[in-house]
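Trying the structure run again after the queue cleared.
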Amino acid sequence: MNSGARAFGSQQANLFDAVPELLGAASRADRTSARPSFPFLRQAGKASGAFSRPVPVPESLPAMRARLLNTARQRVLFLALVFAALALVAMVQIFWLGADGAGSSNRSSINPLIPPRGEITDRNGIPLAVTYPAYSLYFYPQAMDGTGENPLVRQPADLVRELKAIFPDMDEASIAAKLASGKGGYLRKRILPEEANAVWALGEVALQSPQVLDRHYPQGRLAAHVVGGVADDGETQTGTFGMEAALDQWLSDPDTRGTPAALSIDARVQGALEDEMNRGMKLAKADGAAGVVLDVDTGEVIAMASFPDFNPNRVSQDDAKNTGNRVTYLRGELGSVFKPLTVAAGLDAGVITNLTRQWDASPVEVGGKSFEDFEDKGDALTIPEALAYSSNTVTMRVGAKLGAERLHRLWLDLGMDRPVDIEIKGTSTPLFPKAPWSPMTTQVAAFGHGFNVTPLHLANAYAAMVNGGIFRPATLHKVEPGASVPGTRVFKPSTSQKMRQLLRLVVKHGTGRNANAAATGFRVGGKTGSAEKLINGRYSTTRIIATFAAAFPMDRPRYVVVVALDEPKRTHAMAGRTAYFNAAPIVGNLIRRAGPMLGVRPDNVRDVDVSEFEYLLKDKS
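Done. Tokens:
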């Protein structure tokens, strides 16, 4: 064998001798690695360049499971990071909106459920004022070509005729003039959706129906003077008078406007008061009227009405002069309704100790003038008789006994020298004589003359006289049941109890009999007053203010009612122009209707006992 053969044989033997070792190494690699190692293949590949990449080997199940689990974890982490980023962006945006003041916008983008202006309701939740989106009719000349030179497709006169078919009450001449002028502006502030659609169907692009805010009063004229009104430009609404002005901050603040503002008014009683006053005013042909129902324990105004009234949804030019509230601004000498207050002051001061004592009822000479009673009932009268027959002379003598200082002090304690303390604006300052009072001023003031106040002043005073002696200012805010309302004592409890008897006597047997007849069983007590108006410094003999101030039920007074008629006349329906004929029946009819609404039922068994005084009146009635 030559040397080449030997060399080949030697190499061949060595190659086969290495096979068992290679197989053993491969077996060990299978146990320690998922991918087998072939050294001889690597060497061969390196030498020849034929193998540049390893041969793929199938992945084992544990490795695959580990790889998939790792991928899932990465994806979950990615999604979590995305959501966290979105939340961070939202938080930054909310913070930016709050810092930028967007939260105070009337049209809140944060909470569209909050109304642009808060709702006003009565004490039982009946809506009195609400705001909602509405439509208007606006003339925009530049809408056609951007210049406004040719704003309309039709001639103005032709277009007005078509608009008249949509809006029958439209003033054609006025609208035609606005269209012909070429100046933009509102043609109608409020239109219905169907009217907006009809305008759109005309095809005039210059006639637009932008959405605006509308302050609506669902009850119409009911409690119009109490609720008031707003200045409204379609975008913002600001209270101008009444409770709309008093509650403006609450109604416009985003933090509070979502909660309705509840007034003390009871819409049912308010409706009854307005109905009876309107009827009585027309029967007496009075120039105006004012009325109020007051809770004697809390000062809550249950109803308040003024006539002539107005429609708050559309205040016409004629109605604008009627927006003043006569209950709080109509000043006048209310007359004899103040006599019971003078008697109460006499009882408190000990000037009156015996109600059956005879007082001189002859004419009074003071200050160079003579005063006498409207109807002569004799030269001497007791206090019950003096109230029942409305004696000027006896009341003047009680005032003289009291003296200027004590009577003046009482009038101050009852707030007669200052505007009534109530939420609404537009209250009048009384015309009140300055101290020191002369004998003339003192004795005239004792029977309700010489100073001018409003009907609400009188209602506050009567509430204090019958509720046990506590004076509380009137309020138009609802007082929650059981809430304590602070007040100031102005009469003794015993005086208040005695005045209940005397006021009940006046209605049963005196000048208030017409109220008793209209409200049988409701135990009404009160006093009439018919005072001549002071015109240009002189008292008129033909123009008066007729007032009736009452409380019920007198066995446990809960409400005071005051109604005043401005310049009533004698008519076929009214036998006279004094309060006996007009104001007293109005109050009686109201109590008959409103009493059950307020939880007061007719009951003759629980009436106040006035038998100890009735015998005094039998011979003179």
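The CA atoms of residues 27 and 36 lie 9 Å apart. Worth checking whether this holds up in the mutant runs.
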